[in-house]
Structure formats: C-alpha cells, structure tokens
Design goal:
Radius of gyration: 17 Å
CATH topology: Rossmann fold
Order of helices and strands: EEEHEHEHEHHHHHEHEH
Largest sheet: 8 strands, mixed
Number of helices: 10
Strand order of the largest sheet: 1-2-4-3-5-6-7-8
CATH class: Alpha Beta
Structural class: alpha/beta
Amino acid sequence: MTNVEHVVLSDGRKLAYEQFGAENGVPVIYNHGWPSSRLECRHLVPIAEKTGVKLISVDRPGMGGSDFQPNRALLDWPNDISQLADHLCLDKFHILGVSGGGPYVSVCAYKIPERLLGAAIIAGVTPMTNPRTKHGMRMMNRILLNVGKPAPWLLNWFMKYMQNVANDTEKLKRALSDLPEVDKQVMAGDTIDELAESAQECLRQGTAGATQDGRIYALPWGFELNQIDIPVTVWQGSLDVNVPLSNGQILAESIPNVSSNFIDGEGHFSILINHGETMLTELIG
C-alpha cells in the first residue's frame, strides 16, 4: 500500500500526491514522466533521505489518484500546484520534473516564479512546435507525439496498448528493446518493475488522463521558453533516445537564466539513477 494523500481543489477536483524521503526535509515537488504517476520517484527515496529532501510527488489529472480535468491545458498546472502548496503550508518550494514532467516545470517557472526556490528539468521534452524536438527520438515516441494533435483517438489506442504492456514485464522489456545499453543495464534490476508499477498506477482509472497529457505535449504550450525569468537547471544525457539531446539543447538555448549539464554516456533512465544525488543536492543549494 502507498500513502497517497489528496487535496480538494477550488473546482472540486481531487489532486493526489504522496510524500517521500526526509520527513522534515526541504520540499521538492516532483513532476512525473509519461505515462507515469507519483510512484515514479520511489527510487530516489534513499537519496532524498540522505540529502534532506522531502519529495512531494503529484499525479496529474486523470492519472493515478487524481481526478480528470476536462479541457486541461498546460497553463492550468501552476494553479493546481499552488493550491497543493497552500494546502501543505508551503509559501515557497523547489520543483523538479523528469521527461514528460519537464514541461510542467517550465510552465510553473513561467507562471508562478515567486513561489519557486529552484527548478530542475531532467531529460525534459520541449515544445513540438520546434522541429528539432524529435531529432534523434525513438520511433515509438515520435509516433505518439505526432498523433497527439491530429488524432487523439489514435493516441488513446496507444495508451490502451501501453496499459497492456505495463501489466507484463516481458512485454515492457520488448517495448524498450531499442534503448541504449546504459538504459538496458539499469532496467535489469528493480527499475523496470518500478517503471511498470508506476505506469499501471497512471492508467488505473483508464487512459483518458494519459491521452490528454500526450495531446498537451503536441499542442502549443501557450508561452515561450524565453519568457522564463528564474534560474533553471537542465540535465540531459547524450545517449537519450526517449527525449533526445536536441531537447536539452533547446532548453539551454531558450531559457535565459539556465545552468546546463550535458552528461556523456547517459541515457533517459540512467541519468537520474546515476546522478540523482548530485541533482537533488544542487537543486536545494
């Protein structure tokens, strides 16, 4: 059993979150990837305890334990996060996002900079309006992001497929067979089981929330990365094929006050596992 908690938002929706790591640690709100859930950050728990961080990991609408939000846009997310922070009596906090969680850090940095003590984007996806975003991206991810805007029904079909794959570790391994060797190595341990469980939790209510997330990535974000005023730290592995190197380069070129960490030989999953302690330590400063 997990220790999921909920906050009731102003529109009546429930937002699910879970707290991991140091009980009285520095608060870091964690934004999970896609399709994933609040459970994604569990492998960081020993590091969070060691570095004095309390990870507050949040399910996005329609995923995990969070209620679906009709007609959701990326720009809606900072309001949810602000209400969660108010519920937890956090005037200011740090924020971190991995992969598909990257845009959610970007929009918070743009819209609620006064609430943020620090922001980090790890292997974070960039706007689909930039033609470089998909350079070097594995075929499956390109397909998913290509159909998000013109054919959400097809994206929903893919999410149903992912629902089936997440329930079978062997199928999941085959689906990830085109990853670089460094990512396959980290998947050889408990990581793949944790990845599967997080995806299962994401899709527990059905596929609507995850499908909506994919559509949000494909649509214009409603702001430009160069409108972010606060410092942002970017981490990117050179061998990443899920969210390839071009995405980290776009973030580094576009965000005015950015600190970039490009790490040779790291992939999409390995970078957080191998450098998580440095990431959390630098984030909380």
